[in-house]
Amino acid sequence: MCIALAAVVLTLVPYAIAPFYRFIDPVSTPMLWRWATGAQVERVVVPLSRISPALRLAVIVAEDGSFCRNPGIDLGAIRDALRQSGDVGEARGASTITQQTAKNLFLWQGRSFIRKALEIPLALWLNLVLPKRRILEIYLNIAEWGPNGEVGAEAGARWAFGKSARELTPHEAAELAAILPNPVQRSARTPDLLVRRLAGLYVRRAAEFSTLDACVRGP
User: Fold this and answer.
1) Which domains are seen in the chain, by residue range?
2) Please, are residues 216 and 177 in contact by the beta-carbon 8 Å criterion?
3) Taking the model in full, what pTM does it have?
4) CB neighbour class for 121 (10 Å; exposed up to 12, middle 13-18, buried from 19)
5) pLDDT digit string (tens) for 176-218?
């Protein structure tokens, strides 16, 4: 009984905390894990107004083209991912930016149906209690962008290009977007052929679909 009650409380805590993230800059579970294990974390929180518009658009193009339209999840992408699932217990892809934000804030890394089942309602809740602009702002400040604990767009831009996130060019922004799945194996500082190809693709898509970031534009 006590274990069941504790599980319920732990499940509900993120729902109680999430509305406060409209005003409070949160930390991610990977950051907490790095601190707990004594690993380095380099992070400078910056508002969306101090992040290059090119990076905002590049990340939306690369990670979640329906970000401004979806309710936090993309049902079509989830159905496709379930159909393409391999081993039992594994679900691939289909994560929107809001889902990735929910995962990084409250859940663990890795792929499983259990985590996805917890992640989906959390993403819907985040989309309900936080503006799209704030969700993207949080995501860009908690995503890992380097191999040594460089967390957030500012730390990632400084590590890769020696400049602030607000000074990124469209191509630099696209290279950073290209490494988001795995900043340990992919690098914007020393981009390989895959990163360069993806960056070129994202630059072209950003030019073609320049209004995908309409919901997060502002000063």
Assistant:
1) 37-216 (1.10.3810.10)
2) no
3) 0.91
4) middle
5) 999 998 999 999 999 999 999 999 999 999 999 999 999 999 7
